[in-house]
Each structure stands twice: as C-alpha cells, then as structure tokens.
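Late entry, flavin mononucleotide complex.
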Amino acid sequence: MNHISKRKQDHVDLCVNHNMNHKSKTTGLERYEFIHNALPEINYEDISTATFFLQKEIAAPLFISSMTGGFKGATSINQQLAEIAATIKIPLGIGSLRIALHDTSVHDSFTIIKRIVGDTIPLFGNIGAAEIAQKSNHAPLLSILEKCKADAIAIHLNPLQELLQPEGNPQFKGVLFGIESFIKLYQKPVIVKEVGAGISMNVASKLLDIGVSAIDVAGAGGTSWAGVELTRNSDTSYENIFWDWGIPTSECVQMIVPLKKTYAFELYASGGIQSAFDIAMSIALGADSVGMAGSIIKSLINDGNQATLNMIENLIMNIKRIMFLTGSHNIEQLKLAAIKEK
Ligand SMILES: Cc1cc2nc3c(=O)[nH]c(=O)nc-3n(C[C@H](O)[C@H](O)[C@H](O)COP(=O)(O)O)c2cc1C
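Prediction complete; structure with ligand written out below:
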C-alpha cells in the first residue's frame, strides 16, 4: 500500500475507533434556541424540507461531506455512501482526489460513486488548496473530475492539518491566486471548505472576490484534524492549543451570512453537526445547507448501511418537526425562524 493510501485508511480508522473530536470546543449551536410558535398556521403534512444545492433540487438541506477514496476498503465505503445519498436525495462529496492523480489503480474507488448515483444528486469532487496552488498544469485533475463525472469541486483549505501532519506540506503561499486561476479554467461551480478549523469573514470575502460559488465553513466543534494528525505524529513538541484550534461552526456562519448582501453564493454549515437541531439551527442562522462527515462514517462503519440511512431519514423527519413548531412551510421560511441566545 502506498503512503497516501495508508494515510487515508488511518484517517478513517482513527475517526471511527477513537475520539478525534475537539476536546473543549463546541460548535456553539447549543447556545441558541428556537422561539416556540404556538400559532404555526400550517399543517404538518404541507411542510417541505426540499431545497436547492448549486441549483439542483435536493430532499433536505443536508449533504455528506467529502471523506474518502484511494485505499482497499474505500470502494465499499463510497459505494454505501452513494447508495444512501441517492436513496435520500442529498448531495455527496467525494474524498480528496490527490491520490488518484498519482495512482490509476485507485480510480475505481472514486468513479464507482457516479455509477450508483447517476444524475439523482449533486456530486462534488475534492482536492487540497495547496495542491491547486503548487501545480500549474491542472489537466490531470480536470481529467479525474471528468472521469468521476463530478458536478462541482470542493477545494479544502487545511493549513492546520498540513502543519501538524507528519508528512504534511504547509506551503500556502499563492493559494488564493491558485484557486482563482482554477476557477477560470473549470467550467463548473467551485466550493471552498475548511476541514474543521473554520472560515472567517475575512477569508470568505477574499474567496468571494475571486468568484467561488459556495463556502462550506467546516468549523470547529466536531472532528479535529489537528487531533487526528497529532495522534499520528510522534513529534511531541506541539503545544496543546492546536487540538482545539479553530473557529466554532456557528460563529463562522454568523460572520459570513452578512456577506450575502454583497455576493451571490451558497453558504454551508459543517463541522460537528450531529442532530436535527444542529441542522435546523444552522439554517436559522443563515446557512443554505449543512454537511456531516464524522457522525456519518462512524454510523456507517459501526452500524451499517441501513442504520445510517435510517439515522439520516430520522434527522430529516425531526427537521420537519422543528419546522412545524416554528411555523416554517419550507427551508426559506426556516431561515427566518425566530431564535434567541439562551
Ligand atoms: C474519515 C474522514 C476523511 C476526510 N477526508 C477529507 C478529504 O479527503 N477532503 C476534505 O476536504 N475533507 C475531508 N474530511 C473533513 C470533512 O469533510 C469535514 O470537513 C470535517 O471532518 C468536519 O466535519 P465533521 O465534524 O462532521 O466531521 C474528512 C473527514 C473524515 C471524518
């Protein structure tokens, strides 16, 4: 197994079998509550959780965040994630395609997804921002995106992870220019995400200035990628602060929402999302859709495909219940639901 395959497998194993969450930092969503609406003036059966993701209709404002591909067990994981996403009709992120640029033998672990989901859901590829910045020839990436038949790409910003990763590459000079050049080349939407340390308003404005279509905050409060890499790293010189480094998910959303007055873009909340409350509150704070990674891979590997499907269907049913109690017919109305800080 090559070293990237091994790392991808380690990432899944650590996230599933060990507690890799932030230790003392939370998403901050728990600081809010919905104001109960005793006069909702709607019938429960008339409520729709359907919404749009990059112009495609989906069943609920929820997606499976970019996770894996590129090692032996990844084909089966991606196959099951694809079946779940297609059955429920929610978008799916493919894991980083970096390994596929070097090793054609792993292509199937990525391309299998489209064969299952067809055109039913939005499917987005994934690559690291440093990779985009350091390469001037994007032909191999465009070719693998085409092979995966992705509708969009999510570029991840992960300076904290690269800094702490034993084999990391903390080279972030030229990243913004690299993303801008890629946007000009790629004919499809570009999402920019973090991986659990969050995106600030300042960073979001820079990204929106160069024309990204969506920002996925991937904030702190869930999987800590510093935690994952510190666990893999034998270098003990790092201070404890890094495990919990990052901007809580709710704070990222609140900071970035006002930019909607100036720019047209979709805003996704992710990082530590676990419950229907987390999803509904993220929407009420202004997110358009909400992503989940860690809780889904844990459920899939520990409890299986059907249990994960049931878990997600249950989340959507509870979002609908929250919509009823806040008098929200649809997701646009849920964005306006009355909330308050506890
Ligand atoms: C097993 C696993 C693998 C991941 N691999 C990637 C990846 O290849 N590319 C990426 O952008 N994010 C990756 N992520 C990060 C997630 O997309 C997400 O941003 C982050 O884990 C925070 O969400 P969570 O708290 O719901 O896990 C991965 C997450 C997990 C759990």
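The mean pLDDT is 96. Will revisit in the morning.
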